[in-house]
Amino acid sequence: MISLFRSAFRWISDQPYLLLSLTSLFWAGNIVLGRAVAGHVPPVTLSCARWAGAFVLMLPLAWPHLRRDWPKLRSHWKLMLVLSATGFAINNALSYWGLQYTQALNALLMQSSGPLFVALWSLLLFRVRLTVLQTVGIALSLAGVLTIILRGNFATLTQIEFNRGDLMVAGALCAFGMYSALMPKRPATHALSLITVTTAGGALLLLPFAVWEFMHGQRPSADAVTAATFGYVVIFPSLLAYLCFNRGVALIGPNRSAPFLHLMPVFGSVMAIVLLGEKFELFHLAGYLMVVAGVFIAARR
User: Fold this and answer.
1) 53-61: long-range contacts, CB 8 A cutoff, minimum separation 24
2) Tens of pLDDT along 71-101?
3) pTM of this prediction?
């Protein structure tokens, strides 16, 4: 049984498309949850608890690798600090904070611009340009995302009102774009070592702001909803999603990985159909096909 589990784990760890799709699924659930608990759990407190919990759960598993990799990680402390700040602290806190104010439609629209931020940072930092296929794939998947979000009616774009929540979500995406672009420059260490250090860094960076929230009366409610929220965000969009994302980027690179972010609104609409009883429409099918086609085109070598 153990050997079978190890074989399955090795196979999954070499499937970048599956890993990146799972990442988008877990992060889509995180957005839905973040909006659902807006006002129930303070955003920075939720972010800090998310990464602190992920660190505590991961440390026992990562300890043997961390002891071996620590000299290398310490020698790259500046990069580790930037990865912790952009991929964990800033990105997550701004996202939860923005969901306190913005509409779901606006947040999903902003998420569709994620690959563009990755491409921009790759160009600015490393002069890495998008290929023609990547450009076509991102454009096609973006069109599919807009088709789903706008329910096939692009005139809805003229009715959207942007607020400070949208700017926060855009800032979160900008920070995560830098994290994605920098990932190929990470030191050659075990995946558990890297994510343990960066989750710890993210939690420590957020701790002073979480304390500030607490001191100003913004405290999570002590109930089952809060407990379930903490449990989900620690395991699925944190540990599992980042392990999958980091491995996927390591296998195919940031620009080929970025279009998979367009799967998040797709998964989000599926959750609405399955969990909330929304009706499946023709525009859903059209949008899904465009997103899948765009991701496939952009992710090709």
Assistant:
1) 53/230, 53/233, 53/234, 53/238, 54/195, 54/199, 54/234, 54/238, 54/239, 55/196, 55/199, 55/200, 55/203, 57/234, 57/235, 57/239, 58/192, 58/195, 58/196, 58/199, 58/239, 59/196, 61/192
2) 999 999 999 999 999 999 999 999 999 888 8
3) 0.81
